[in-house]
Specification:
It contains 16 helices and seven strands. By secondary structure, it is an alpha/beta fold. The strands form two sheets. A four-stranded parallel β-sheet has the order 4-5-6-7, with helices on both faces. Helix 8 crosses helix 10. The longest helix is centred in the last third of the chain and has 20 residues. It is globular, with a radius of gyration of 19 Å.
Length: about 325
């Protein structure tokens, strides 16, 4: 674990934690209690960043990884006399995990209940594969999907190439950032963020985990989504999708809202971010993304639900302490 990173999280008012689960898996998280929404708890995907990789024989399918994350969340949250409301939010790989978790809500720990899902800049994995195969241009643009899905080959090629995983990571960050938004790129690069991301990818275990993630996305994740559609299993809660017009919006003129309505039973809201902002929405256009998030949560009564739960739990914790 990089102690400098943990120290920096502390200076930002974040509480850093390494959570070990009974089955030997674990994740790294950092949290902060916000007055408006209660606890905000980003959890790093197993194998990425500071989170340890899964055991060698484990699958990185989104159900396995998602349940590790949601079980870790149940250990992080303060004790409560009622079910804790959970709002899932993820970008890219994290969004795919959030999608899987939303469908798998019946598998949640009994202490948690899902109240909404927010996905940043993705389409369903099954849809993404079909779009990728729809034309030569789409195939070239998404070449990394089948490349990384050949996990052993890709891991070996990346880690033994010049610059290794760090160079690979930087090449993808540069390719997917907004091409015509200098302010957004400056935000993405602030705090030397790209170098931080790249440093973790200099670890072969992180490259391997990323490749295994994509391998699952070409296999078991697809089978699960096909089974979901056949059985009519969909996300049961309201969904917000925020996407980049310059990234996801360029994928064959796809109807983002129409696609996601096929995968959700709840109300589907979609917001596009323009201005040349690329794939990294939260970093390139944080104010606009937060505005969409807060407006949606407020309109759907979720801000109040989260705030009341946080206030109730603080009162319980204070009474126990006293």
């Amino acid at each position: 674990m990089a102690t400098d990173d943990v120290s920096e999280l502390s200076t930002l008012g974040l509480t850093a934690k390494s959570i070990d689960l009974e089955d030997g898996t674990g994740v790294f998280s950092y949290s902060r209690e916000l007055d408006s929404i209660g606890f905000h708890i980003p959890i790093l995907i197993p194998g990425y960043g500071l989170s340890p990789p899964l055991p060698q024989s484990s699958s990185y399918d989104k159900r396995t990884v998602g349940l590790i994350i949601i079980n870790a969340l149940s250990k992080i949250l303060p004790p409560s006399s009622r079910k804790q409301p959970v709002l899932l939010l993820g970008h890219d790989r994290g969004a795919r995990i959030a999608h899987r978790l939303a469908v798998d809500e019946p598998l949640f720990p009994h202490s948690l209940c899902l109240i909404g899902t927010i996905l940043l800049d993705i389409l369903p994995t099954l849809t993404q594969w079909r779009l990728r195969d729809s034309s030569p241009t789409a195939s070239v643009s998404a070449f990394h999907w089948p490349f990384l899905a050949n996990a052993s080959l890709a891991t070996n090629l990346i880690t033994t190439s010049t610059g290794g995983g760090a160079a690979w990571c930087l090449s993808r960050l540069n390719a997917w950032q907004g091409a015509s938004n200098s302010a957004g790129i400056a935000r993405l690069e602030s705090g030397d963020a790209k170098s931080v991301y790249a440093r973790y990818f200099s670890n072969d275990s992180v490259v391997r985990a990323s490749c295994e993630d994509y391998a699952a996305g070409a296999g078991i994740d697809i089978r699960m989504q096909e089974e979901d559609m056949a059985a009519g299993r969909k996300m049961p809660v309201d969904l917000l999708v925020i996407y980049s017009e310059a990234y996801l919006g360029k994928k064959g003129g796809v109807d983002v809202a129409g696609v996601w309505r096929e995968w959700a039973d709840g109300e589907v809201s979609v917001e596009a971010v323009g201005g040349g902002v690329g794939h990294f929405l939260a970093e390139e256009a944080p104010e606009e993304v937060v505005r969409h998030l807060m407006d949606w949560m407020r309109d759907h009564g979720l801000l109040n639900a989260l705030h009341l739960a946080s206030k109730r739990d603080s009162e319980i914790e204070n009474s126990v302490t006293a």
